[in-house]
Design brief:
Shape: globular
Protein name: RagB/SusD family nutrient uptake outer membrane protein
Keywords: Cell outer membrane, Membrane, Signal
Order of helices and strands: HHEEHEHHHHHHEHEHHEEEEEHHHHHH
CATH class: Mainly Alpha
Strand order of the largest sheet: 1-2
InterPro entries: SusD-like_N, SusD_RagB_dom, TPR-like_helical_dom_sf
Subcellular location: Cell outer membrane
Family: Belongs to the SusD family.
Number of strands: 10
Strand content: 5-15%
CATH topology: Serine Threonine Protein Phosphatase 5, Tetratricopeptide repeat
Helix content: 40-55%
CATH architecture: Alpha Horseshoe
Largest sheet: 2 strands, antiparallel
Distance between the termini: 41 Å
């Protein structure tokens, strides 16, 4: 769904009129000619309304909707949390650049931390826009099948925004509609379990309304699907199983949901691992959900169809800022000759997409950069066209493998992991490893590389093998922090002083493993009269 600039502009304009507040959620008179009364009587307008919800998921930074002062919130990216706050990555760039990332890394996080504030603000903006669709589309006069699909997309996206919130902040206010002006100052926080139950309800309903991936026309690839809803539901249950499991989930549920995705025959591993994060790998057979971007000449701001994600992670010697540096700890996790290593990290002297990369250690913490975010310099460096992969089929296989291991289906778990390893060992080198070329050179992987897991693996040894596979398969894809937290390993990766600070912010609800929470945006905690998270 490489949404055109014109389509994104229309969607932006439509929802600017209809969805004025993630902060105040006040009902206001529409500012344009399109209103909630006629929005869903026209199929084009209805699709644009849903496009506007996707649009928020793509925002790196942007306006704080509902703020009469027009406040502009700064950048936030999932790698700031999922990678940099874990043992997979360091902040990167020069020591003094973007100190708010150091606050995250060290758990010295004020309630005004910009990436945290923007995560909160944008999530509720997306929720408000999704609610506009969910609460008005049933009364529309568009085709019933299109109506069902669009409502399913909005439900999926509302669950997606809430999932990002609950992982980071714990229980949050639950909005299934926009509060009235009198209700807005009196919102309350739900518990973590209640928030997850809300998300699960959305994704279960979405799965009944959404089509399979193959039912979409080529122009609509990238929209939410039945498979995406079921896979995200499995991911949310896995997370609860290792944290607050107030909804009494079981590993059998994860096993069943991932089995449903696998037996749908809608997905397969892309044969070449090195192509996954290239343009040829966008919305591929392996993709369950990814955030869509396209080329443009725009720079900063949510109206751009591109992303600033790439410039923030690319080499300062090319066109980037050099953040999110892979650690030696991550590099050492890869087995000898694993082709995934070269497709994950850039080291000094590597040729990337035909360009020689020099890494200056005065502006790099570890000597490595994230190759998965490396792209050819776009028209506007701040408007990268690369889609961000959020859910891959390999994740579904490894989630099922972990569920199978927990259910003592060891041989099945091993076979699933071996599928992922087999694909990896047949990968080529990443494209453009010779100056001036973009070809995929053979990796010449030696025989015996990445051997199949031993058939007798069981218990903790099998789980360790699965967790290892997740780390190297999804390196620099923003999953590491959450995998560490849900498996109870996160706190032990932290230096003693950082661990103590993290524990001072631990969730107070009964949990399988202790885990820290981010601070709620200071302004909203005060204006909504919400209790702040521990220690802030």
């Amino acid at each position: 769904m490489k949404t055109s600039h014109a389509a994104r502009l229309v969607a932006f304009t439509v929802m600017a009129a209809l969805s004025q507040g993630c902060d105040s959620f006040l009902d206001k008179d529409p500012l344009g000619t399109t209103t909630q009364d006629n929005l869903f009587k026209d199929p084009t307008n209805a699709v644009q309304a849903v496009n506007a919800v996707y649009d928020v998921a793509a925002w790196d930074q942007g306006p704080k909707w509902g703020d009469p002062n027009g406040q502009f919130v700064p950048q936030t990216y999932e790698w700031m949390f999922g990678d940099v706050m874990s043992d997979d990555a360091a902040k990167g760039s020069s020591p003094s650049d973007f100190p708010t990332l150091t606050e995250l890394k060290t758990w010295n996080i004020p309630a005004s931390n910009p990436p945290v504030t923007t995560l909160w603000v944008h999530s509720f903006t997306g929720i408000a826009r999704a609610n506009t669709v969910i609460n008005n589309i049933d009364a529309g006069t568009i085709d019933a099948a299109l109506k069902a699909r669009l409502k399913g997309e909005a439900l999926f996206l509302r669950g997606y925004f809430y999932f990002n919130l609950v992982k980071s902040f714990g229980g949050v206010p639950l909005f299934d509609k926009s509060p009235t002006p009198t209700e807005a100052p009196n919102v309350t926080r739900a518990s973590i379990a209640q928030t997850y139950a809300f998300i699960e309800k959305d994704w279960k309903q979405a799965a009944t309304l959404l089509p399979e991936k193959s039912a979409y026309a080529a122009a609509d690839l990238g929209r939410a699907t039945k498979g995406a809803a079921n896979a995200y539901l499995a991911r949310a249950i896995m997370y609860q199983l290792g944290t607050v499991n107030g909804n009494n989930h079981t590993w059998q549920e994860v096993y069943d949901l991932t089995s449903t995705v696998i037996t749908s025959n809608q997905y397969s591993l892309l044969p070449n691992y090195a192509a996954i994060h290239q343009e040829i790998g966008e919305n591929s057979s392996e993709s369950l959900f990814e955030i869509q971007f396209a080329s443009s000449n725009d720079t900063y701001g949510p109206i751009s169809v591109g992303t600033t994600n790439n410039i923030f992670q690319n080499n300062r010697k090319t066109f980037g800022y050099g953040f999110n540096n892979p650690t030696q700890n991550l590099v050492d996790e890869f087995e000898p000759n694993d082709p995934r290593l070269e497709a994950t990290v850039i080291k000094d002297g590597d040729v990337v997409l035909g360009v020689l990369n020099t890494i200056d250690r005065t502006e790099n913490e570890t000597g490595y950069l994230n190759r998965k975010a490396a792209i050819i310099r776009p028209n506007a460096p701040e408007s990268g066209p690369q889609n961000i992969r959020k859910m891959r089929y390999a994740d579904v296989l490894l989630m099922k493998a972990e569920a199978a291991a927990q259910l003592n289906k060891n041989s099945e778990a091993i076979a699933l992991v071996n599928q992922v390893r087999q694909r990896a060992r047949t990968s080529t080198r990443p494209p453009g490893t010779t100056v001036g070329t973009l070809t995929y050179a053979p990796a010449n992987t030696p025989p015996g590389t990445l051997p199949d897991l031993a058939s007798g693996l069981a218990g903790q040894a099998l789980l360790n093998a699965i967790w290892h596979e997740r780390r190297v398969e999804f390196g620099e894809e923003s999953l590491r922090l959450w995998d560490l937290i849900r498996t109870g390993r996160y706190l032990n990766t932290l230096p003693a002083d950082v661990r103590a600070r993290a524990l001072s912010h631990a969730a107070t609800e009964t949990s399988v493993n202790p885990f820290p929470l981010l601070p709620i945006s200071l302004n909203d905690a005060q204006s909504w009269k919400l209790p702040q998270n521990p220690g802030y």
